[in-house]
TrEMBL record:
InterPro entries per the UniProt record, alphabetical: ClpP/crotonase-like_dom_sf, Pept_S49_SppA, Peptidase_S49, S49_SppA_C
Residue ranges of every copy of the Peptidase S49 domain listed in the record: 135-284
Matching Gene3D superfamilies: 2-enoyl-CoA Hydratase, Chain A, domain 1, 6.20.330.10
Pfam family, one: Peptidase_S49
Keywords: Hydrolase, Protease, Serine protease
Name of the gene encoding the protein in the UniProt record: sppA
Keyword Transport: no
Protein name as catalogued: Signal peptide peptidase SppA
Lineage, opening ranks: Bacteria, Pseudomonadati, Verrucomicrobiota, Verrucomicrobiia, Verrucomicrobiales
Family note: Belongs to the peptidase S49 family.
Entry keyword annotation includes Protease: yes
SUPFAM superfamilies xrefs: ClpP/crotonase (SSF52096)
Length: 344
């Protein structure tokens, strides 16, 4: 190839890149101002992108009606994820946004929330529960419990209109846990000590540098029981089962199967996700509705933004710990809705 031809090729490639960047930036800016699907404006303080739809099941008879499938997967956390990771680890904000978009879309007749979670942070679980309950006041919300919908996962499900569980689903685990680690004896063996200056007797109650006093244990236990009582009240209200009955049967932290949950009136029926779709169609009076999922679109703008944030930093070392790395790590002093096996 001659130098002249080579130079023309370079110019064409550069022009193509500039046009592509222009289109992506324009698309990004337009999404900051307006939700294309519903015409709803977003706050300038915290702009949101419109979530794009992917068809799961095509509608019948060319129907425009839709059932939206939303996934709640993994440990429920207040930690926010963005960009390329938003879909793989949905945050509280992304679940709320999905529910809000589904409610605002007049063609959406019902929502199926697939829960596959061992639970997680108390407050994060409560926020999502409230968002689900709010959505259910506008449109039917059916929760489908996958492999696990325990503790905080079940807490979230209580906001739905109906709950469908697989026969082998592990659910319930109605309870609260707060953990801390005490290393005061280890300090003594290695000759270390810690001095804390506090403004009150309970300011360092969960410090691992010293044994807990009995009044501190009572104080923390009281916090746990307050949150447990709220959990119990939400289950009782949602499922129409008295608190005392729940306490004497399944509300002691145990995990039960979907079949046992049905017998305890914790779920409405046994089935698979397809059964949840059919129930949603029935409740939404949309027998021909298709099923769609939402996804976050990652533009070149996002890719360049993430690349620039990483510029000048050394490559990250990737480590895989197959012993405990796949389990959620509890932060000391943070209350969680988690089953016992996940709390250690």
């Amino acid at each position: 190839m001659s130098n002249k031809s080579y130079g023309c090729l370079i110019i064409l490639l550069l022009l193509g890149l500039i046009v592509s960047l222009g289109l992506n930036v324009g698309q990004f800016v337009s999404k900051l101002d307006v939700d294309v699907g519903t015409g709803a404006g977003f706050s300038a303080a915290r702009p949101k992108r419109h979530l794009h739809e992917v068809t799961v099941e095509s509608p019948k008879m060319n129907s425009q009606e839709k059932i939206v499938h939303i996934d709640l997967e993994g440990v429920i956390s207040s930690m926010s994820m963005s960009g390329l990771f938003a879909e793989s680890m949905p945050s509280v904000d992304s679940i709320k946004q999905s529910l809000e978009q589904a409610v605002a879309d007049t063609r959406v007749k019902a929502i199926v929330l697939r829960v596959n979670s061992p639970g997680g942070e108390v407050t994060a679980s409560d926020i999502i529960y409230n968002a689900v309950k709010k959505a259910a006041k506008s449109k039917p919300v059916v929760v489908y419990m996958d492999s696990m919908a325990a503790s905080g996962g079940y807490y979230v499900a209580c906001g739905a209109s109906k709950i469908v569980a697989s026969e082998t689903t592990l659910t319930a685990s109605i309870g609260v846990i707060i953990e801390t680690m005490n290393y005061s004896e280890l300090f003594g063996k290695v000759g270390l000590s810690m001095t804390a200056f506090t403004s009150g007797a309970f300011k360092d109650s969960l410090s691992g540098a010293r044994p807990m006093r009995e009044d501190e244990k009572a104080y923390v236990q009281n916090l746990v029981m307050q949150m447990y009582d709220r959990f119990l009240g939400i289950v009782s209200e949602a499922r129409g089962v008295p608190k005392e009955q729940l306490k004497s049967t399944v509300a002691d932290g145990r995990v039960v199967t979907g079949r046992e949950a049905l017998a305890a009136k914790l779920v409405d029926q046994i089935g698979y996700v397809e059964d949840a779709y059919e129930l949603a169609r029935t409740l939404g009076k949309a027998k021909d509705a298709g099923v769609v999922k939402y996804r976050h679109e990652v533009s070149l703008f996002d890719a360049f933004g993430m690349a620039s944030a990483k510029a000048g930093t050394p490559p990250a070392k990737v480590q895989l710990d197959v012993s405990t790395g796949l389990l959620p790590k509890l932060l000391p002093g943070v209350p969680y809705y988690l089953p016992p096996s996940f709390a250690h």
